[in-house]
Specification:
The chain is built from eight helices and 13 strands. It is an alpha/beta fold.
Length: 248
């Protein structure tokens, strides 16, 4: 199975720390490398990185990353990185056959999350989203979170940043099938801008968007300086295996 890591955006809220969010170090290891190592630990055999902003710099980083982690890490550039993130998903999915772990370059996870999510496929869903039911989790930014409302099957009824009712928060990790990119494309054809959430909602409306609850495991969206500081403080302990692997 492949992993698809979205690393195309501008990362405006981390600009004071780094010109490239995916290459921003967390206790000495770039976010993108943490993500790729976490994906490999979950059983991924190839990583596809969607590039856009600072594409040349990120693409130059990938061959060395591939050598360090021992699996191919390849770039797929999105045509217009200023468009919503669903366009990046479609660009990356175009070079992937079959199911894949979809990750954002600024999200980091303790090992059980990606390892558990990778086992959640099924014929009854087109995508499975890792969710955290701790809606008051202090590591979640409520002003930036994507919220989820689930039905009695624990499938998604609604997803978005401004939905009025919710019972979980999107962790930024997905086990996707080819249906996800097709759903985003269909949402665009229907007049939407092309966000990942719009594609997810389309699958939800069809009863094809499942969730998997992470059970209290640690994760963090490193989207602004205060969460970068939390990552600096907490990631080495939470991701001890990866840090030990890098530092010997």
């Amino acid at each position: 199975m492949d992993a698809l890591i979205i690393a195309a955006g501008f990362g405006s809220r981390l600009r004071d720390l780094s010109d490239s969010k995916p290459l921003t170090p967390i206790a000495g290891i770039p976010l993108l490398e943490l993500g790729a190592r976490q994906a490999r630990a979950a059983g991924v055999e190839r990583v596809v990185v969607v590039t856009g902003h600072e594409a040349e710099r990120i693409e130059a980083f990938l061959p060395g990353l591939a050598d360090r982690i021992g699996i191919p890490v390849v770039a797929q550039r999105v045509e217009d990185w200023t468009k919503p993130n669903g366009w990046s998903v479609m660009a990356g999915a175009s070079v992937i056959a079959g199911n894949y772990l979809l990750m954002m370059s600024d999200h980091i996870f303790s090992a059980p999350i990606l390892q558990g999510l990778a086992q959640q496929g099924g014929a009854d869903r087109g995508v499975t989203l890792a969710v955290d039911t701790r809606c008051d989790n202090p590591l979640v930014d409520p002003d930036d979170a994507t919220w989820v409302l689930r039905d009695e099957r624990q499938f998604i009824r609604a997803i978005g940043k401004t939905i009025p009712e919710y019972d979980a928060v999107d962790c930024g990790a997905f086990l996707a099938t080819p249906e996800l990119a097709r759903a985003i494309e269909a949402a665009i054809a229907a007049g939407h801008a092309g966000s990942l959430s719009e594609g997810m909602q389309r699958l939800a409306d069809a009863g094809r968007a499942a969730t998997w609850e992470i059970g209290g495991a640690w994760w963090l969206d490193v989207d602004e300086p205060r969460f970068h500081q939390l990552a600096e403080e907490q990631a080495p302990a939470q991701l001890a295996e990866i840090y030990g692997e890098v530092r010997g």
